[in-house]
Write a structure and sequence with these properties.
Blueprint: E1 15-18, H1 19-25, E2 27-32, E3 35-40, E4 47-50, E5 74-75, E6 82-83, E7 90-92, E8 102-103, E9 105-108, E10 111-114
Antiparallel strand pairs: 1-10, 2-3, 3-4, 4-8, 5-6, 6-7, 9-10
The protein binds FE2/S2 (inorganic) cluster (FES).
FE2/S2 (inorganic) cluster (FES) is lined by residues 53, 55-56, 58, 76, 78-79, 81, 94-95.
């Protein structure tokens, strides 16, 4: 499924977060209307994903806000799935064989916006 197929999917140019949000927190979680998303800092730069775990389509932070592992991976609070933050690929537990749905990003001034 492509991010643009979700209700309230943001158009190109829509701000998703300020650069300082992910530089200080590592991950930024929010929603635009009914569209849940997250932006995470990675060694290759920020990545954005729809904040729905493909295992059961629940938000990664449904049970706890702590979804950024010490190793920089994204953790799903529902069933301990684990995702590579750079690629979105599932790397542990029920996340294996799954992939987070990416949202294209580009910098614009002090913000990261939908590309
Ligand atoms: S909903 Fe994410 S691992 Fe089950």
């Amino acid at each position: 499924m492509h991010y643009s197929e979700f209700p309230d999917a943001p158009a190109s140019g829509t701000p998703l977060c300020a650069d300082r949000d992910i530089r200080t927190q590592g991950v930024f979680v929010a929603a635009i209307g009914a569209f849940p998303y997250l932006v995470v800092q990675t060694p290759q730069g920020p990545r954005a994903y729809v904040n729905l775990c493909p295992h059961r389509f629940l938000p990664l932070d449904h049970r706890t806000e702590g979804i950024l592992g010490a190793d920089g991976a994204l953790l799903c609070s529902n069933h301990d799935g684990k995702f590579d933050a750079t690629s979105g690929a599932g790397i542990k537990g029920p996340a294996l064989g799954c992939r987070l749905i990416p949202v294209p990003l580009r910098p614009e001034g002090e913000n990261w916006v939908v590309a």
